[in-house]
Amino acid sequence: MLYTLITGATSGIGKELAYIYAKKGHNLILIARRDKLLQKLKSDLEANFDCLIEYYVCDLNDIEKVTEKINKLNNKYEINCLINNAGIGIFETINDLSIKAINDQININVISPIIITRLLIDNINKNNGAIINICSVLSYLPSTGASIYVATKHALHGFSNTIRLEYPNIHVLTIHPATVKTNFFKDENYLQRQKHVIDPTFVAKKTYLAYQKRKRKLNIPKSFCLINGLYYILPSLVDKINRKYFSNK
Ligand SMILES: NC(=O)c1ccc[n+]([C@@H]2O[C@H](COP(=O)([O-])OP(=O)(O)OC[C@H]3O[C@@H](n4cnc5c(N)ncnc54)[C@H](OP(=O)(O)O)[C@@H]3O)[C@@H](O)[C@H]2O)c1
């Protein structure tokens, strides 16, 4: 029996991914911290779709626990798709960031997905599976007030591209969304100030399509690949645009 493992399944993009993967008949292992939400999600998914749902409460900030839990899962399940989705963003300029805020973002956004991948890679490879890493448009662009978040998403992107080289049988897909309407932003007014906000169901649908088509990278919206290209040709111009429009997290 094959399983898809999704981290950060209790809200936002991860929850929508759980719905779409379950709808398409994938058995799921869901990971997050909120027990009750995971329990409810399991009942909803099993009631509506023909699939098996397992869930595990795990704080991805606790690397020892992550290692312990994933080792157990690795012995118990055949996994053919890993979706490293869980992530946090703490948006302050570097001098205002606490050491804890720096460590938490690095642990949850980078160390955990790397450790999970490391522990499951043989399992996934054996099943000719896929690894989907939820990166960001900030995996290739900088943004003021987001230095550590940007660093973590650049790292996850670089890690993904290297795993693809090392494991040709594994389909490695990176997803790069712009602003998505989820609980990710602690500043309640941030989303209201944005002109373009993407629905998490749209991100999940597009991710599933890219997974089916074995794509390597997906920008949401697609126009961000132009900004990405422009950044490498005219970085000073993009810095100016960036400061003007994207500096208010
Ligand atoms: N929203 C955006 O604009 C946006 C844009 C680009 C990329 N992204 C990326 O998309 C991914 C999903 O974010 P989202 O927007 O869907 O945010 P969200 O609604 O806040 O969901 C985050 C998920 O991660 C889980 N999580 C957070 N800290 C955790 C921890 N310590 N241990 C285990 N699970 C943890 C949360 O579950 P629990 O609280 O239950 O643990 C939740 O299920 C993130 O990697 C984010 O960087 C988001």
Layout: helices, strands, pairs:
Blueprint: E1 2-7, H1 12-23, E2 27-32, H2 35-48, E3 53-57, H3 63-76, E4 78-84, H4 99-126, E5 130-134, H5 147-166, E6 171-177, H6 190-193, H7 200-212, E7 217-220, H8 224-233, H9 235-245
Parallel strand pairs: 1-2, 1-4, 2-3, 4-5, 5-6, 6-7
Bound molecules: NADP nicotinamide-adenine-dinucleotide phosphate.
NADP nicotinamide-adenine-dinucleotide phosphate binds at residues 8-14, 32-34, 37, 59-61, 85-89, 108, 134, 136, 177, 179-180, 182-184, 200.
Order of helices and strands: EHEHEHEHEHEHHEHH
From the helix content, strand content and strand pairing, which structural class follows? alpha/beta
Query: Which stretches are low in confidence, meaning pLDDT under 50 for 5 or more residues running?
Result: none
Largest sheet: 7 strands, parallel
Judging by the overall fold, what is the CATH architecture? 3-Layer(aba) Sandwich
How many domains?
A: 1
DSSP strand content: 15-25%
CATH fold description: Rossmann fold
Write out the strand line-up for the largest beta sheet, numbering strands in chain order. 3-2-1-4-5-6-7
What is the tally of beta strands? 7
